[in-house]
Amino acid sequence: MIRKVLIANRGEIALRVISACKEMGIRTVAVYSEADRNSLHVRFADEAICIGPPRSADSYLNVPAVISAAEIAGADAVHPGYGLLSENANFAEVCRASNIKFIGPPPEVTRMMGEKSTARQTMKKAKVPILPGSDGVIGSEGEALEWARTVKYPVILKAVAGGGGRGMRICRNKEELPGLYQQASTEALNAFGNGDLYMEKFIERPRHIEFQVLADEHGNVMSLGERECSIQRRHQKLIEEAPSLQITPKQREEMGKVIKRSLKDIGYWNAGTIEFLMDEDGSIYFIEMNTRIQVEHCVTEMVTGVDLVKAQLRIASGEKLADIVPKQPEIIGHAIECRINAEHPEKFTPSPGKITVYNVPGGNGVRVDTAQYAEGIVPQYYDSLIAKLICHGKDREEAMNKMQRALSQFVVQGIHTTIPLHQKIFADEEFRSGAFDTKFMERFLERQKALK
Amino acid sequence: MIRKVLIANRGEIALRVISACKEMGIRTVAVYSEADRNSLHVRFADEAICIGPPRSADSYLNVPAVISAAEIAGADAVHPGYGLLSENANFAEVCRASNIKFIGPPPEVTRMMGEKSTARQTMKKAKVPILPGSDGVIGSEGEALEWARTVKYPVILKAVAGGGGRGMRICRNKEELPGLYQQASTEALNAFGNGDLYMEKFIERPRHIEFQVLADEHGNVMSLGERECSIQRRHQKLIEEAPSLQITPKQREEMGKVIKRSLKDIGYWNAGTIEFLMDEDGSIYFIEMNTRIQVEHCVTEMVTGVDLVKAQLRIASGEKLADIVPKQPEIIGHAIECRINAEHPEKFTPSPGKITVYNVPGGNGVRVDTAQYAEGIVPQYYDSLIAKLICHGKDREEAMNKMQRALSQFVVQGIHTTIPLHQKIFADEEFRSGAFDTKFMERFLERQKALK
Amino acid sequence: MDGNDLKELRELVEFLKSSGIAEFEMERPDLKVGLRFAGETPAAAPAGVDMTQLAALLAAQRPSAPAAAAPAAVAAPAVASTSAPAPVAEVDPHAGAHIVKSPIVGTFYDAPSPDAEAFVKVGDHVETGKVLCIVEAMKLMNEIDSDATGEIVQVLVKPGQPVEYGQPLFAIKAR
Amino acid sequence: MDGNDLKELRELVEFLKSSGIAEFEMERPDLKVGLRFAGETPAAAPAGVDMTQLAALLAAQRPSAPAAAAPAAVAAPAVASTSAPAPVAEVDPHAGAHIVKSPIVGTFYDAPSPDAEAFVKVGDHVETGKVLCIVEAMKLMNEIDSDATGEIVQVLVKPGQPVEYGQPLFAIKAR
Known about the structure:
The complex is a heterotetramer, with two copies of chain A and two copies of chain C.
Chain A: E1 4-7, H1 11-24, E2 27-33, H2 40-44, E3 47-52, H3 63-73, E4 77-79, H4 89-97, E5 101-102, H5 107-114, H6 116-125, H7 141-151, E6 155-159, E7 169-171, H8 177-192, E8 197-201, E9 207-215, E10 221-233, E11 236-242, H9 249-266, E12 270-278, E13 284-290, H10 297-304, H11 308-316, H12 321-324, E14 334-341, E15 353-354, E16 357-359, E17 366-370, E18 377-378, E19 385-393, H13 396-409, E20 411-413, H14 419-426, H15 429-433, H16 440-451
Parallel strand pairs in A: 1-2, 1-4, 2-3, 4-5
Antiparallel strand pairs in A: 6-7, 6-8, 9-10, 9-12, 10-11, 11-14, 12-13, 14-19, 15-18, 16-20, 17-19
Helix pairs in contact in A: 4-5, 7-8, 13-14
Chain C: H1 3-18, E1 21-28, E2 31-36, H2 51-61, E3 98-101, E4 106-109, E5 125-126, E6 131-137, E7 140-145, E8 150-155, E9 162-163, E10 168-173
Antiparallel strand pairs in C: 1-2, 3-10, 4-6, 4-9, 5-8, 6-7, 8-10
């Protein structure tokens, strides 16, 4: 078993890992920048080492500083949390070279999954459904019609050399395709000096669905079901749920099998998340894999009863999955997470500063993961997440009602937070219906504007 | 369904009930004394009415004030919480007369259970095991020997007129009984002018085990399993757990049947707790029934997934138990609660005052029920409970480790609390072994003294 | 600036006054306070500080308070209650008047019966012990006596209105 | 302005009063306070000012110094904490000395090799740019140069000792 873990992160996830270690009798070493001297992860770790000035690049992202700290403290493992160095394959390699266990998948797998096209090809080979499209460049208008027939309308034509929307056209039927193909090709040629196009299936109202996986170092893989993460603003998730109302038990079981096979093929281990887009018909398509613990891992913990961070630590200690999670967990009830960010709830501008009042809600079915406290400072240097409020109810209705109650009891003063935004979302009919997609926030913010 | 509930209580239980109501869409009315003007139950209720000066007798125990407040606010039900008016049958009767639903059993049942000998006889009739003993006064030494043979040694002889230990003798075998009988009788005669004795089974190291029940107003009863509450100091519970390691699934099921039958006979409804003593052989004997929600209800909620306060509200609304808890819940994992009191952790002197720093632990499997906050005042007028820290783990070991972690992250400054006491208890070998009884705290405190 | 700030400011001023401070200045990124008591000794300060004006002044200097998440400070008085008066924030037109408060929760009536005349009205002189009103609680009519002698300058509640414990009912000015 | 500020201010004023101070001014990045008591001296307090207490009062609300994993107060107000003495109150024996701090995390060595002589010792005069020590990080020997000219008055760490970022290594007194 791992004896001493250095947590190469800050904020709530650092405290989350420290708490898991403490409960397992593993010693903890916090690292911190000068801006985080008074942070709770520093206070609650067994040891703490200052590794640099406030800027992440000079501290939390400074590989030599983190490794030196681990060596000085005699840590035998490093937990990278999420963000920062968590998907940095080089860091994982340096850990390996320094004889420090990196708590995550092997660097080769991280690197492979970090390159989108390689990841896509790997998953395709492993029979994971990927977004249908042309295999590379389309040779002609006729070929385009041919591809569109197999991919099925609507499709989107994209410039191979492209970006920024130029050389891009959405085609809804075979009648309009030839014209749009010519337009897109000409536009691409003019813009990038290359008229080559490729095709993908176009999803008008996609949902973001992701599957949580655990895999040990002995080739055993388990899927812990999905999360619904469609409530996003500019690709930043705001609210996550488990399970998704759209995934049937049968689909969950089937995906579990596909995932099991594919990750075994790849040689994946430790925790990970496979992200999918779901189209209007409920079909899902692989987009990418995150090779780390995620912010929203808690909703899976609430409905499965599995402690994912403890599982990570035990996997990294060489344990077998069958000893950690003896049988496929049942999904019990419904869990929702709100990300409480230090941001203006309407303008979304960051709001660092000193928290003067901080009253955290509690009670039945309410979980708060936070490293903030009254009189604490939210530094300007890092991401704005100050707390995760997670509610678990017997169904989605109860979880939502619990969230509304808990949000009303979550009092933060001194800085702006997204609490009022969440309160409005939870009062929104479309959100409550569960029938939404990744465009929800655009529509919601329009509605809010109209109310004024 | 009840529309508006007045909560005739304060502190964490008032906030607990308010939270449950909010999640169910029921409006809430807080009542408060002048000392509680800035309390969270006042802040988080929909309405709040000041009902008197700080002393409980003039405010929270003032029946006319509470009823007037309910009438003024138009509340259609009153939740009494625990303590205060919760087991006051007169109050329940006034509620009934005022056409306000009292959320608890009918006043007749409360009154009957409030008289210990009546409760004992009632339970005996309903075939609930009660502490064996002589049926009233023992006529002679010979009769005493006879009774002792059926009750089984050790037994305790007690003066009918007695008290304070006089005329009391513990007998461990039939050889010593005749002598002790004479001694006790003579002592009783001298002390009280009455030498009459009776006999009870003597339990040297009893455990306190209690069963949580729910019953609807249609004659349906369900047992939600037991709690282990042996960690007490001067009959004040400090730590409670569910389930008890001593109760086998079979015993739990059998007790469930006995309880079901007996409470149906009595005409009990709403939530209640039946308290037992367990002897060294694992046999349990009825001692009393609490006709209200209890402080430690949360541990049962954590292992059964049933929200007991919501169940109370739904039962009081006339719903059927089968709609509230469709099937006998499985006991999942292990939950422990620590009562965090505003008391000196060694001297046990009350420590009212202003809380300057209040950092509540969170994270996976940690629940905090509290109405306190930083800069809040703990008034001198009421009981010293400021928070309940509840941890749920997959087994007792994990729950204990989680508790240790959470206690280390629970920071209260400005007043003394029992947090350091709990930290020592959770490091104690006897406590961790689970092999303890109601005398645990005496032994523990002796050990602590010896360490100094 | 919310009631809480104002309350604290008031406490600050009172405290400074009682501490015998003649001048005070404080500056923070978000707040600047400067004050000088009139007269030689603070105790001789005539009418006291105009809190309203001071509050307005301070509010202007403060950046829009980012207390968005919460309608009021946790530590603030019972603002959550619909009925609770926020006495500090209001300008008290009867400064110095004695306030008769309700000793119980109930419903306020100004007269012994619907058709009867009110026990007292504004302008009346009352002696200690004079019945001022009835507060009904649990079908019981509780007569509330005056605990001061003077002139009724205001009746602060309306007939039939529910009152809580300690709620101001009458303002009486001693003569 | 929150209740906490007010409490501290109150304590400060009471302390000043008891210390027999007539006028007081304080400036910090986040706070500036100036006040003058009425009269000549409010109270005769010949004992003088208790600097420790004053320091503690002023330190409140300021991000407390180091305390790595130490059980310092979660929130700044050290006033309430029974145990935590404010770090500001500590007497610095090298007041005024320049402190050379470690620019990286690593292991401190005072000499280029185990048998070699130390780069510098107490009493040595050093110029800016002079190598003072080595901090080893990831098998790399990083020479640390002096960023001041003067006399080494103290070496604050021992050879082989791990140092964190910003940890004081040498005290240098300019002459």
